[in-house]
Here is the input.
Amino acid sequence: MSAGCSSCCSSQDAPVVDKTYRRILWFSLVVNLGMFFIEIIAGAMGNSLALTADAVDFFSDGANYAITLIVLGMSLQARSKAALFKGICMGAVGAYVLFVSVSHIINGTVPRAEVMGVIGFMALITNVVVALLLFRHRSGDANRQSIWICSRNDAIGNIAVMLAGAGVWVSQTGWPDIVVGLGIAGLGLWGAAQIIARSLAEMRLSDQNV
Here is the structure.
């Protein structure tokens, strides 16, 4: 490996902490945990798998932001390990939603469409604001990429929750809610696979440069 490349890797291993990025992460952490409590209650009251899935996703994102704040400024190896952990957690969230969906399918649960619509819209506004704030910080290591993927997935999921609410209202069945819940789970599993693959690659690169 050339000296120039070694120098480049060394500079990446000790990043300068962006204070603006840190403030955005703190804001994102607070609003995500707030929306977790709102959606977990609304999901229970409205019997909605999609809202419950989105609530768990909000909690996962809150943990994601907290871990990122802890490892900011640490070595590439430490940041990559944190990203790997977050990817595994995202995968676990997706698996949990798949498990819960079985109960809704068996019981034929019909959620409250109006609750899904209102809370889904609140969640969408929250995630669009966070996604816009994080957009310029989406490039970089696996840790930063994981933050952007979470925010992007959340905004997509919230739009889907609102569409599911409309579908429940029109069809008077719980199937739109179940389909969207499963979609959110699939999106989480796909995002987890991306983050895990990227973090493992960075860990191998970091080991080679030791």
Observations:
- Residues 1-14 have pLDDT under 50 and may be disordered.
